[in-house]
Amino acid sequence: MIQTSDIQRPDPAIIERLWHVSAATAAGMLHGLGIRNPHLQGPVAWTPGRKVVGSALTLQFMPKREDLYNESEYSDPERQLHRHALYHTKPGDVVVVDARGDMMSGVFGEMMLTFFKGRGGIGVVIDGCIRDYPNAKSLDLGMWLRGVTPNYHTQTNIYPHAVNIPIACGDVMVVPGDIILADDDGAVVIPAGLAGQIADSAGERHEWEEFTKLRLSQGGHLRDYYPLSEASKAEFEAWKRDQGH
């Protein structure tokens, strides 16, 4: 019987605080903490307007090799590792898949995504494709994909190899239990060990951006408000007091 490991999920309070952070803001803040590029490049929003923040379940695909992969192994559905990735789903999880950028394999289809949704999953980030998109798009899941295909997952070049191990998705390392924050700008991975710092700084960053947008919309000069000049910092503090912050 196949045994796969579950993930360690962060404090739900941290996840809740990160819902107020955009992918762009998170990427900039992570750069300030030494993470050069947290953006999972390749998967793009196929459900515009959706946002997800959740713990990463991971699934790794590998190229088929004749001595290691045999179609007969998949006569028993329980030997299909992509199922086991979804078996770990808890409410708020995001499944992240290294599908090697393959455009000919539908990693999940409507039925598996329906199961994932029913277990409380909120989004998928796949460096590759899904199938059954005409039906899957109505499931109310956030989807960041390279594309779609009618082919099933092992029909052509790749097969699921491992569950809940560190993977490379979109040329970025994702560790099981990291936090995925994704919106229309794309998907960003927040290392679990840095999530608290991002959440702690997010509130002040949101206030600063609100103030800056207000002043710029009123005709303020870019050099005064982005970033804040010394004079504008004092103005910002006065504005916060007026707002009751």
What can you tell me about this protein's structure?
The chain is α/β, with parallel strands linked by helices and about 240 residues long. It folds into two domains: about 40-190, 3-Layer(bba) Sandwich (Glucose Oxidase, domain 1), CATH 3.50.30; about 195-245, no CATH class. It has helices at about 10-20, 25-30, 80-85, 110-120, 135, 195-215, 220-225, 230-245; strands spanning about 45, 50-65, 95-100, 125-130, 140-150, 160-165, 165-170, 170-175, 180-185, 185-190. Strands 1, 2, 3, 4, 5, 6, 9 and 10 form an eight-stranded mixed beta sheet that branches. α2 (about 25-30) crosses α6 (about 195-215). The relative contact order is 0.21.
Short account of what is shown:
With 245 residues, this protein is α/β, with parallel strands linked by helices.
Features:
single chain, 245 residues, alpha/beta, Glucose Oxidase, domain 1, 2 domains, eight-stranded mixed sheet, two-stranded antiparallel sheet, elongated
CATH class of the largest domain: Alpha Beta
Order of helices and strands: HHEEHEHEHEEEEEEHHH
Distance N to C terminus: 56 Å
Oligomer: single chain
Write the layout of secondary structure elements.
Layout: H1 12-18, H2 23-32, E1 44-45, E2 52-63, H3 81-87, E3 94-98, H4 110-118, E4 123-130, H5 133-136, E5 142-148, E6 158-163, E7 167-169, E8 172-174, E9 179-183, E10 186-190, H6 195-217, H7 222-225, H8 230-243
Parallel strand pairs: 2-3, 3-4, 4-5
Antiparallel strand pairs: 1-5, 2-6, 2-9, 7-8, 9-10
